[in-house]
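Marked as duplicate of an earlier ticket. Keeping the data here for the record.
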Amino acid sequence: MSRNVLVITTSLRANSNSDRLAEAFVNGARDAGNNVETVSLKGKTIAFCKGCFACSKLGHCVINDDANEITEKILNADVVAWATPIYYYEMSGQMKTMIDRANSLYPRDYKFRDVYLLSVAAEDETYVDEKAAGGVHGWVDCFEKAEFKGKVFAGGVNDQGDIEGHKALKEAYELGKQV
C-alpha cells in the first residue's frame, strides 16, 4: 500500500548535511513504493505564532505566509519526517516555529499517523539529539492518532559534505524503506 510521505527539511544552508540525510530517507521511502514530497523551509516566510488560537476556530492561521501551505501538506500526509540540524542540543528554530504554526492541525481531521526525526550535529555523543527528539515527541503527543516511529541521528558532521559516507545515511534509507 502506497503512502503519502512528507519530508520537511529545515536547514537554511544550501546542500546541508540534514538535507542529505533527508534525501537518503526519501530514497528509501520511494524505493518502497511510496509517494514522497519534500518541502524545504529555505526561502520560506514563516512568522512566529502569536498565540491567538484563532486557528482553532478557523482551521488555518490568520498570518498569511508560507506556513499555511506547509500545514495543509502536513494535514494530508500519511507520514511526516522532519529533518533538522541540531543547534545547541535542540531542533533548529525554524523547525520549532513551523511546528508552532501548525497548531491549526490540532482540532482537524489530520491524516498523518507516523512521524520521524532526522537530525545532524557537529557533536557526536549519543545524547545530542535527545532534546530535539523530545520536542517532536511533545508535538506528536498532542495528536492521539499519531505516533513517533523513529529517528536517525548523524553526529560528527558540521561542514558541508561531512555526512558523505556516514553510517546514518544507510540508516535513514532503511528507515525510509520501512515507511
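See parent ticket for discussion. DSSP finds six helices and five strands in the chain.
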